[in-house]
């Protein structure tokens, strides 16, 4: 069958009825010229087609864990067990241990997302224990007023930082939190100063929560300064951690780097944490809690220094 490259339709009809001499009058088409014209027409058509940009790749927790080898996943699980072990023995401190361990294997942002749901679920029973939860929420209102904007700011800082810078900042935060918790300054707060002091401590506690998933230590100092002890302290501290961790999960999933699928992965991380907590509760009577707490905090300060070192040496 004849094509457009052989001859135009009118010339084909004439070539079938005329002699070879007459057919030779019509010049053969230039195939290179036809190809160039077709190529140019294709380019013009391509320019008219709207170009859809490829979707921006996100650094989601589920993607991070999916591409890691089984050995890294096992190390992450062991880190969560160790963090649960600490909480089972002394009742607090899970993110203080979990973050430096997890940051050895995954990035800081993914580690913060991974810890959000275990922070909620592990503290929920203590937050609801004894009733009067609404009253405790009202007493924590000054802290919440400062914590919400502080947490939002901390999450923005975490997501905006380069991975190495974020690790260095988290290392400094760990060193500061470990040092403050280890020294545990004893403050006595006057009731008339409870509102402004609660807002200030909540704000900076929220920043630490957004950057390193550790909203608790500064607020715990405020609660102790208010004179809370025993079950009253445990309930308000746990309730604060539940609310702050829930907001952390919401803020992170509202960003473009995480999704609600990551919340499911974070929820599944509660399984190794519960395992560690059950072991820690069995060891609670065999190990002096204060001695164990001191050793853990010293290790946390050392881990924070190790995290921060590459950021300053580089």
Give a written overview of the molecule.
The chain is mainly α and 314 residues long. The chain has two domains: 9-48, no CATH class; 61-313, no CATH class. Helices cover 76% and strands 0% of the residues. The chain has helices spanning 9-17, 20-23, 31-48, 61-67, 70-90, 94-102, 108-128, 133-139, 141-160, 163-183, 194-212, 216-225, 230-254, 260-268, 270-283, 289-313. Helix 6 (94-102) packs antiparallel against helix 7, helix 10 (163-183) packs antiparallel against helix 16 (289-313) and helix 12 (216-225) runs antiparallel to helix 13 (230-254). The longest helix has 25 residues, at 230-254. It is globular, with a radius of gyration of 32 Å. Residues 1-5, 10-27 and 51-59 have low confidence and may be disordered.
Count of distinct strands: 0
For the record, give the distance between the C-alpha atoms at the N and C termini, rounded to a whole number: 70 Å
Helical amount among residues, as a percent range?
A: over 70%
The overall average pLDDT, rounded, is 80
- Whole-angstrom Rg: 32 Å
